């Protein structure tokens, strides 16, 4: 993602809501981990180069614990039409 694309994406987030998602590790070798998600409003840009963001989570929450062990996670910026999410 270029700096301009990163800046443009974050410019769309005035005081919005984001969806943070990650996948828990599988319980057995043949299984697939559970998808976990949460909404958050405490999300902000930290740096453009490199592109870094920060999200605030409740200490000890399920998502906090998951992100401690899961290096891959995603953030989706929600539009007003996605209030149902």
From TrEMBL:
Residues of the Flavin reductase like domain: 11-84
GO biological process: pyrimidine nucleobase catabolic process
Protein name: Flavin reductase family protein
Entry keyword set: Oxidoreductase
Pfam families xref list: Flavin_Reduct (PF01613)
GO molecular function, one term: FMN binding
InterPro entries noted in UniProt: Flavin_Rdtase-like_dom, NADH-dep_flavin_reductase, Split_barrel_FMN-bd
Superkingdom of the source species: Bacteria
Gene3D superfamilies reported for this sequence: Electron Transport, Fmn-binding Protein, Chain A
PANTHER family found in the cross-reference section: FLAVIN REDUCTASE, FMN REDUCTASE (NADH) RUTF
Species per Swiss-Prot/TrEMBL record: Streptomyces sp. SID7499
């Amino acid at each position: 993602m270029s700096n301009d694309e990163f800046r443009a994406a974050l410019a769309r987030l005035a005081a919005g809501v984001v969806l943070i998602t990650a996948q828990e590790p599988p319980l057995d070798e043949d299984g697939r981990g559970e998808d976990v998600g949460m909404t958050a409003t405490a999300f902000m840009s930290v740096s453009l180069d490199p592109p870094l963001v920060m999200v605030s989570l409740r200490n000890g929450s399920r998502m906090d614990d998951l992100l401690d062990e899961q290096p891959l996670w995603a953030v989706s910026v929600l539009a007003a039409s996605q209030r149902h999410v």
